[in-house]
Design brief:
With 239 residues, the chain is mainly α. Helices cover 65% and strands 5% of the residues.
Length: 239
């Protein structure tokens, strides 16, 4: 048994070999996917707290990056990549399902068609922006975390989780803002909205760091794994 790279736990170091059996991987994967779906639905509401206006999905969406950090740190990039694509498939299924429901003829007794369309209606540009931003941001986050883990030899977890989120969330926020609103809103306003949401998301990650540490340490000890991606093919499209 080799010593863990941080904490007092003793964990077998697995170099790019995926654990044959895990207790909690599926739970983290399901929570990750649920956060994506719920936060995208919640984004239909624009909330205002203090001086800030933001889509309500912002209160939950940063958890997707925290779960992404946990998946990559404990189980490695390869398994994280699989979950990212599961999330993508779930978002597409949600968009297709809501679109079909939106265009189904409403019952004459049901008077809420306009309300349904206002909240869950299909807006192609917004959906496209959300999906592209999600894929780019999550893959950048996972890639950077995995590479930094190798570079730091598993040390400075706080730097790796926050650093990868700064890049991943930045790409996510900018892509979504410009794909969704370029040509509709002034560029300065897009940057302002994206910057505000980005700041909130990164702050969320920083504040959650102590909890992230606890969850990662618990999972590494419980699962008996600590995957390093030394020989991993980081192609996001590889099975």
């Amino acid at each position: 048994m080799l010593p863990a790279t941080y904490s007092c736990y003793y964990i077998p170091m697995i170099n790019n070999n995926q654990p044959t059996s895990t207790k909690y991987f599926d739970i983290i994967a399901v929570l990750f996917t649920a956060v994506l779906i719920i936060s995208n639905a919640a984004s239909a509401k624009i909330a205002h707290v203090g001086k800030f206006s933001f889509d309500a999905g912002t209160i939950l969406f940063p958890l997707a990056y925290i779960f992404g950090d946990i998946l990559t740190e404990v189980y490695g990039y390869k398994r994280s990549r699989r979950v990212i694509w599961m999330g993508f498939a779930s978002l597409v299924l949600m968009a297709v399902s809501f679109t079909i429901v939106q265009y189904l003829p409403p019952s004459p007794e049901w008077q809420n068609q306009a309300a349904f369309e206002a909240i869950l209606g299909f807006v192609p540009r917004i959906v496209l922006a959300s999906i592209i931003a999600y894929l780019a941001g999550e893959f950048c986050n996972s890639y950077i975390l995995a590479k930094l883990k190798i570079y730091t030899k598993g040390k400075k977890l706080w730097m790796r989780t926050i650093g990868s989120t700064i890049v991943g969330e930045g790409i996510d926020s900018l892509l979504f803002g410009f794909i969704a609103f370029y040509g509709v809103l002034p560029t300065s306003l897009i940057l302002n909205i994206s910057g505000t949401i980005y700041t909130l998301k990164v702050a969320y990650e920083v504040l959650a760091t102590p909890l992230t540490y606890r969850v990662i340490n618990f999972l590494k000890k419980a699962e008996g794994v600590d995957v390093y991606d030394d020989d991993t093919d980081f192609n996001p499209f590889k099975a």
